[in-house]
Amino acid sequence: MKLQQFLGGIEGLGPVAVEKRVFVQPWEARLFGVHATMMGTSIWAWPDLRVKAEGMNPLDYFKYRYYIKWQGAMAEFLVERGYIEAAELDALTQRFLDNPDTPLPEKGNPQITERVIDYLWTGDNPYRNIATQPKFKVGDTVCVKDVPLGIHTRLPGYLRNKVGVVEVVYDGAYLYWDKGPTDGLGTPQPVYNVRFKTTDIWPEIPDHGDVLYNDFFEVYLDSVQQQ
C-alpha cells in the first residue's frame, strides 16, 4: 500500500499543517474553477483526481501542498486525454513564467457556464434511495477486510484487520464515483458506522476508554465468524 493511501495513522511525518485559508495563493482559486468546469462538463470525476494524485511518488505527495497535487493531476489527465499536447502545455507554462503579467485568455461560453453553475448547486450526491438488505445490523461485531488494493481505495490502512462493533446502519445505499479502478466500490451498497476501541488499534497507548468511529462501505467488512 502506498503511504498516501493509508488515510491516517502514520507517525513520523512531522507536525500536521493546519491551514484555515481555503486558497493560499490566487492561482489556487483559478485552478479550482478549472476543476469545477471539468466536473460540470463531465470531463472527469473525483476518482480521476484522486487516482492521479495518489499515483505520485509518496515523498512528493507529502511534500507538496494540496492544490499543487491537483495541478499535477489535472495536467497529466488533460494531456493523456488529448485536450492539450505536452509540448504545448510546457510552452505555455514557460511563457507565463517568463512574463507573469501576460493577460489570461477570456473565452466565455454561456452553455458551459450554465452547466458548471448547475453542477456547483447540485454537486455529486452518492446517496441512492433504493431498497437494500444490509449484511450487518447494529451491535454486530465485524472485522475490517484487508482487501487487495486497486489504484484507489477508501479504506483507511490503519483499520485493516481491526475488529469493531456496528454503531449505525445508514438508510439507503451509497455509490462511490469510480470511473477509475477502485477496490470493489462500483455499485451502490450499504454504509455502516463502526466503533473501535483505540487500544485495539494502537495497543501501546494508555487505555482511557477512548473510542474511534469510522464509516465503511459494506464491501470492506466481514463478520467476525468469517475470519
UniProtKB/TrEMBL annotation:
Domain Nitrile hydratase beta subunit: 127-222
Highest taxon listed in the record's lineage: Bacteria
Pfam families referenced in this protein's UniProt entry, alphabetically: NHase_beta_C, NHase_beta_N
Reactions that this protein is recorded to catalyse: an aliphatic primary amide = an aliphatic nitrile + H2O
Protein EC: 4.2.1.84
Record domain Nitrile hydratase beta subunit-like N-terminal: where: 1-107
Keywords: Lyase
Matches recorded under NCBIfam families: nitrile_beta
Function according to Swiss-Prot or TrEMBL: NHase catalyzes the hydration of various nitrile compounds to the corresponding amides.
Name of the protein in question: nitrile hydratase
Organism name: Pseudomonas putida (Arthrobacter siderocapsulatus)
Gene name for this UniProt entry: nthB
